[in-house]
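pasting SAC domain-containing protein for the record, 804 residues
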Amino acid sequence: MGSESKSNNDDMNKMKNQALIDLEEEEGEEEPESCPSYKLVKFKLYETRSNFYLVGRDKTKKFWRVLKIDRSEPSELVLCEDPTVYSYHECRTLLERIHDGNRCTGGLKVVTTCYGIVGFIKFLGPYYLILITERRKVGMICGHAIYAVSKSKMIPIPHSTVLSNWDNSKKENRYKKLLSSIDITKDFFFSYSYHIMHTLQKNLCGDDTKLVPYEALFVWNAFLTRGIRSDLQNSLWTVPLVHGFFKQVKFSKFGRTFHVTLIARRSRHYAGTRYLKRGINEKGRAANDVETEQIVFEEVDGGRVLEISSVVQIRGSIPLFWSQETSRLNIKPDIILSKEDHNYEATRRHFQNLVDRYGSPIFILNLIKTKEKKPRESVLHMEFVKAVATINRDLDKENRLKFRTVDLTRLYRIRGAKVLMLLNKVAGNALDQTGFFYCQLPSYMNHEVSSSLSYVATELADANTIKECSQPKIARFQNGVLRTNCIDCLDRTNVAQYAFGLVALGHQLHAIGITPTPKIDLDDELADSLMALYEAMGDTLALQYGGSAAHNKIFSERRGHWKAATQSQELIRTLQRYLRNAYLDPEKQDAINLFLGHFQPEVGKPALWELDSDHYYNIGRLTPPMSHEFSRSFLKRSLSDGVLIYESSSPAMPADIRDTSNCHHPLPDLKEDQTGMSESTPEISTCDTDITYSRFTPSMSGRQLFTDMPDAEYLRGECSCYNEHGDEFDCSDILALDWVSSSGNSCEEETYDRSSLVSSPAGGSVAGSNMNEMMEVQQSTASPIPDEFPDSFAQWVEFGTTLA
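structre below
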């Protein structure tokens, strides 16, 4: 017995020493130059039988904090933050005492090293702690490191001795698997000291004390961190994760090297997948809402940044109430256009939100088809024109929405890749109106900005300070934004965003003093390099929302790629996107809703996968919650060639709406609900509607079809189009123009010409109604489709690997 006791004591001392060695290694670790801001950047998680202890330190290794998490509660989250700020030696002494006090139950053990808390989540049983266990640096902005997540870990908080029966249930495990499908090691990024969720202009010119990171619409773990931030009244322990795209590259021009950083921030509001999130919701939040920022700077004298510039543009679904439902039998699902919001109140809210965020003017670039033999996109286009005209009717001329239409599909067929020259012209016009951000960072302030721009106020508190410090060059500021859309806001939109980015890059380099003129030719090597950067962003955003890489045929043609190879690639991506949308997206949407907190599991309530749709939270069609039986008939589609279905009902608007305040030029008579624009709290509409559907295939002109079209005076000068020669003209009667006629009703993004499809060995082709007929036959003879699919199938759909 004595020998056994001695052995146990030796083991305890070994564990104790191991914990202290780990902490001591922290002190000897090399770190970048210290930052005086107080933000914890590295952590170690320790455990005893009754508690977790998370020990965190700042970048200087001078400040150490301890957070205790109670493990004795089976289903509650109990946090206790030690208010003491420890030194290294004091923290080491504290750990020794904790170890000694828990010898009888195993002492203090190291669980993992981590780099921040992603959040806490609860399903049906215990709470789980989600940690970033590995990170990688992907770039620097003004001396501030930007990181991506390399590895993460989800740890159940209660000790195994107090876990309930729910903890290993099938539902609990399925929820854990569902949440794990949101892979935060892909396309999520963060910074400890830079507000990466805000633009550079807002970081440098805004009041930093008002920049609350987790209230930004681009922070995806706002819900997961809400509990700890509320309990502790701080965000020292958590990191705000932004979802989208981040890449920083070095370019050279005239012997000078500069950095171009491309950031895409995806909104967490109304987030989801291609066919399950379309249009806008009641609060005016658009589907596939992505903010793109292009930052340019040149480093001198060992990494100092003396001049920096940025420009912002956005993309988002057409801001109307419209939708499509995934169909396993129809590659082109019907478009459902709601006619309920007669006054376009939600559309007004959407554009008011853009004015509040970016200022005025709002420059709209609409890339969808304007006329078709079988109207689909063109009907949405006309409704969009009508909505903008209705809003502009109540605005002063200088504050009106600027609406431009480019039928990119039509123009590409006529001019090929030369359509980029036309897009450059439109982009130049938009940039002239919105401007871009540029400022000098004086040498005496550069170190402070590079190392101290963080979650505390900086001396660059407002634009006037920058102006005073920017002599002899004058600072520039962006006021307004370009908003681009097509149907999916993926393929055509990405080409247009590249065109705007190229025009802006020329102006940015000229402002910094790298180029003598503000123009970059399309044949310039720099244009090709920037194209590759935007192509990478487009593929990433398309995978997130659409399920496949983007269709880049304009880029491919510009590079001179073989047309047959491009068409084959486009066809493969079309099929991958279809399969992903039809079979895998419902589960992906469930995972997104779970991660964002739109659905919170409860014991005794239906599970997430048992619900027919995500009407459990407000999807924004001004419709009431529906029973499962009714919702299935409510959303039925026919197996047609994808023509448009109209949704008609008596108008019904929410009662709890009020006027919004604004910080820029307001949109008049704009109403907002009591929760405001900054939160995504789930809501259920209580309005009563009696909705019916009727198939409608119009053959009349646009003016006959839309008899309630506003007077042209509200469109003239604000709504214009471009023809195949690149000439701009007024389009207040756009549907009567012959040049926009299309050669049939084609699939979104026109991924291939039907006449040039590669034939199968049997001599047939997969196109149009033939594909629909083929799938109908397969569906009628196939066995029932399972709820879950083999990993090999999902792997092929997502990454294009070989399907075994």
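The first strand starts at residue 40 and ends at 47.
The chain is about 30% helix and 20% strand.
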